[in-house]
Amino acid sequence: MSLIAVAAVVAALTGAGAATAAPASKPIPNSSPGWLAHGKNLGVAAASAPVSARVYLAPNGGLAALQAAATAASSSNQYLTPAQYHAKYDATTATVNAVSGWLTGAGLKVSVGANHQYLDVSGSVSAANKAFGVSIAKFSHDGEQVQAPTGHASAPDGVAASVIAVSGLDTTATVVAPLTTKPSPPSAGFRNAPICSTWYGDKNPNNLPTPDGTVLPKFNGKVLPYAPCGYTGPQLRNSYEAGARKALTGKGVTVAITDAYASPTIASDANRYATDTGDKAFTPGQFSQSLPDSFTQVGPNKCDASGWYGEETLDVEAVHAMAPAANIRYYAGKNCQDKNLLDTFTRINNEGVANIVTNSWGGAGDVVKTSLLQAFELAFLQGAIQGISYVFSSGDAGDEVAALGSAQTDYPASDPYVTAVGGTSTAITQAGVTGETGWQTTKYTIVNGAWSPTTPFLYGGGGGYSTNIPEPSYQVAAGIHSPTGGRAVPDVSMNGDPTTGMLVGQTQTFPEGVAYDTYRIGGTSLASPLFAGMTALKIQASGHRLGLLNPLIYANPSGFHDVTGAGIDAGNIRVDFVNGLDASAGYTYSVRSFNTTNTTLKVGVGWDTETGWGSARVGWLAAVK
Known about the structure:
This protein is an alpha+beta fold. The strands form nine sheets. Strands 11, 12, 13, 14, 16, 17, 18 and 23 form an eight-stranded mixed sheet that branches. Strands 4-5-3-9 form a four-stranded antiparallel sheet. A hairpin with a 2-residue loop joins β19 (440-447) and β20. The longest helix has 19 residues, at 524-542. The two termini are 39 Å apart.
């Protein structure tokens, strides 16, 4: 979707640019599948084939009114309750009846969604063709067999302004992935080799020889240290929050976490991890969960429930580390499809309990279905009007060139109404955070006695400039020049490099049985909950909710440490078990570089495409009056 297309969506929702003499029907903006140009048409779908779709309704007053209200609420700290929000902004009963009448008149069955935000429709291809003015066919594209319209869908002129988007006519599955970077899925069990540093840089091949006698060469003439074993909660908290008032613990604040599925051992794992690393376990009622009625899978290899368990474990343990007294409420999606992660936002907003939401997942790139973009953005705007702040990991594929072939930011992190958190490679010593640079990694292995780059780009924090989401006013006002005219990502950053990652504890399945153990993990999935935990302290200090965080950040970024690459090595040596479990199969050695130059993303003075304004420090914890 181009910037022009986004403008067309906004125009359709706000009534801008309407023709004097409207046609009998109007296209639903961007309802034509984006893959049509390369998909293969396999013929007309059977008239009796089933269709299940969702029609999203515009908020009462239009999208522009909602956007203005979100900005005003956050600047004035005057927020609505969920009931007040729904009374003011939900589509009216008259609107629901009018749109329902159009759909049922074509032979579709209609079910009204919660708070009039959407209508679920079902019926046959024949009825859907009649209702939306389309021709639904069978297609193959990108390895999938789907059913989809051959062009855009339409709505009658009388209701077109009330319809934001439609999803489901195209049956292409849209799923998201957790943004953790861990060498092995939790279900298989994983242990780091114990050849590592307790604090950054305190172990290297000179003071801790390799266990099998392998000679590790110098890297560019220098002896590199071993990677940290994984920073513990107290190490991270005491470094980032150094100088904070002792009373700032997150008390009275609720941090929401969203992921797919739910680890059956999360409470016991988080409590054991906290006590083993010197923190306190949850008090009764401090940790709670909002779970769907059931969990489901999405086709072969689409969602891995056990893989999401590690994501949830990281999120919960990282938030608790940074805000030990904050309440944590976990909201699980029934699977990893977008619509079910969106359902977690509905629950969060309608409960109104959370102050801030951390989300460690996302899609690849920000070319997203319009129906999803609008549904996500409506959720973020409702949250902002209620004072709920949304925070997202910026992605783990750098500028996405290696994965997608062109530089892109990732959605939902690129939405202007969320805060995107990028990743850093971070040196934490007993003196605190003593060095940082952007997280972009090249992997080196030993070839003919020297370190040789075997994977030019392994992974890295997401960032860059969107080509689909316009640059928001707060970035323009801050003097950030976007060469694409699009949203700049990330906004801020925290530790994310798996080489300098966090030690977490989780129950896993090992060859000898199910057991609790620890391992180091990273990704911007770590950065987001670290930042959300710190922001819980800021909310506590302020004594009220904050809503949209980005206007605060861009107006005064002095609470963030500018990451320029100082104080840290060119990389660290990773020592891993070949089998990921123990030394029985031997060891493998690699160098994981910091801030590789193999992407378009760079660190620099001020805001940059790798780390945004930098990483949070005690200045970020200042109260907002």
